[in-house]
Amino acid sequence: MSAAVFLGLDVGSVTTKLALLDSSRRLIIKLYQRTDGRPVEAIQRGLAEAAGAIPAGSIVAAAGATGSARQLAGLLVGADVVKNEITAHAVAALDEVPGVRTVLEIGGQDSKIILIRGGVVVDFAMNTVCAAGTGSFLDHQAARLSIPIAEFGDIALRSHHPARIAGRCGVFAESDMIHKQQAGYPTEDIIAGLCEALVRNYLNNVARGKQIQAPAVFQGGVAANRGIKSAFERALGHEVTVPSNYEVMGAIGAAMLALEHWQRHSDEGQDGALARSSFRGFEVADRDCRTRARECGGCANSCEVIELSIDGEILARWGDRCGRWSQATGLALV
Fold this sequence. Notes:
Layout: E1 3-11, E2 15-22, E3 27-34, H1 39-53, E4 58-66, H2 70-77, E5 81-82, H3 85-96, E6 102-106, E7 111-117, E8 120-127, H4 135-145, H5 152-156, H6 170-182, H7 187-206, E9 216-219, H8 226-236, E10 240-241, H9 249-265, E11 289-295, E12 304-310, E13 313-318
Parallel strand pairs: 1-4, 4-5, 6-9, 9-10
Antiparallel strand pairs: 1-2, 2-3, 6-7, 7-8, 11-12, 12-13
């Protein structure tokens, strides 16, 4: 007898994450890889790897997509549910820590805070403008210091006197870091200072005016950095929990939303059939999937319309304001 499993995709500008859950919400497969500016290829690589690892007899009963490229991912794989990152991360955090009240999430290019009260999201904020409060800021400084980013956290924890580094702007932070290097500051103090600068930027910008209450969960790729976790705990005055699957929580949340969708729409118990999924199958990994952007000249708006095709067949268009192309698949752009 086949077993139902549920796929979640979280496609961001820096990383693409994939999670596969069983009907008991147990994580079966998780994948974390660089997007490298090519989300379609990243999705296909993830599907190909998952296809080789999925337990025998398993069938994807529903799929969910989230992330900044969620629309593209949803269309490409045939997702049954497409949700924003706030919803996906909140759902996963609530499953990990049922009483969670604050979700701190820092990714490669953006960061967010989610406030939850009584199991319901009541407020959130995102930072997508300045990179000083994101993982790319640390990546850049790690490269400049010639230190692997994976070692940043452990080195920061060795510091007893973190350097005070300006963190409001990535450019100023780098200039300040260079000054500290030239002044002879120990490397561990500079790295600890960078961690504190990132946290300070996050709290002063993303979390500005928000009531950060415990229990707090820290997720996203940057949660791997123990120096950042420690800096958050010093700044907040309470413990911050890092989930075991911190790096793929968005994908896990998308898979959970797909599972909930399947449970709501399943016909089981009526005629013995299960709800049919829109999932296109893992074979999408081997098909010729392409996107292209065209400017529509139909009116003065000159909308940039994005077109997705599989094996030369136009699958969908979106990006227009009037709906001329998004509502009519298979027509040529002017």
